[in-house]
Design a protein that fits this description.
Rossmann fold; 6-stranded parallel β-sheet; 6 helices; binds zinc ion; EC 3.5.1.19
Length: 247
């Protein structure tokens, strides 16, 4: 047995949303307050895939319909559904939060950040970046491809749940089927989809590691708040160099 090893741990790498639109497309991090370079996660993730044997590797993709609620440009489709205490259509700008009252079929109060249109199904912007290593399954390594955010009316930042926690994705059941006990999370964006994925991984009982130097985010202040919150919930925020001692 190797020193520092966890002999019974089954390890999954969750690679969140390494898609063109977040790197050099319509919602590129370099145009967000952080001005992060999203492509910088790619060599870090590729090195992890090369150096570390993960039992399960998950690639997630934001995968929106044209009429998705999260797009500022679609606000006119649901302007009549804005709550009375929401900013109204003429007051709302991109990156603002709107509050919609939907029927799903029961009444739902949906708070939604209005993003630039991004990751529309079957477009280039929704593809995984070509430089990201897409590895093949082997006898000892499962691959899971997970699409999220395809409900027009409810966004899905997390890879486990939609934003209203109404519908669970298949991720938890698939990880359980492979007896995964530890998840390592990398990708985009630290303070949005990575954060919510880590939060729900913790809730689902996985030993959860967020690999900070293999993530990039939207806003530095939010990133720090989110990381502090995760640490408070016993998520381990680590660096890529730390991973080999944890597997
Ligand atoms: Zn999205």
């Amino acid at each position: 047995m190797r020193r520092n090893s966890h002999p019974k741990a089954v390890n999954a790498l969750l690679i969140v949303d390494v898609q063109y639109d977040f790197i050099d497309g319509s919602l590129a991090l370099k145009n967000c307050p952080s001005q992060h370079q999203g492509e910088q996660v790619i060599p870090m993730i590729n090195k992890l895939l090369k150096d570390i044997h993960f039992d399960v590797v998950v690639y997630t993709q934001d995968w929106h319909t044209h009429d998705h609620i999260s797009f500022f440009d679609n606000l006119h489709l649901r302007a009549h559904l804005l709550a009375k205490d929401s900013k109204q259509a003429h007051e709302l700008n991109v990156f603002d939060t709107a509050i919609f009252l939907l029927d799903d079929p029961r009444p739902l109060r949906v708070e939604q950040i209005l993003w630039p249109a991004h990751c529309i199904q079957h477009t280039h912007g929704a593809e995984l970046h070509k430089d990201l290593n897409i590895i093949k399954p082997t006898k000892t390594r499962k691959i899971i491809n997970l699409l999220k955010g395809y409900d027009s009316n409810i966004d899905s930042y997390s890879a486990f749940w939609d934003n209203m926690k109404i519908r669970e994705t298949e991720l938890h059941s698939k990880l359980k089927a492979h007896n995964v006990s530890q998840v390592f999370i990398v990708g985009i964006a630290t303070d949005v989809c990575v954060y919510f994925t880590a939060l729900h991984a913790l809730e689902n009982g996985y030993k959860t590691y967020l690999i900070q130097d293999a993530c990039r985010g939207v806003d530095e202040t939010n990133i720090n708040l989110r990381l502090d919150e995760l640490k408070g919930r016993h998520c381990s925020v680590i660096q890529t160099a730390d991973v080999k001692d944890l597997i």
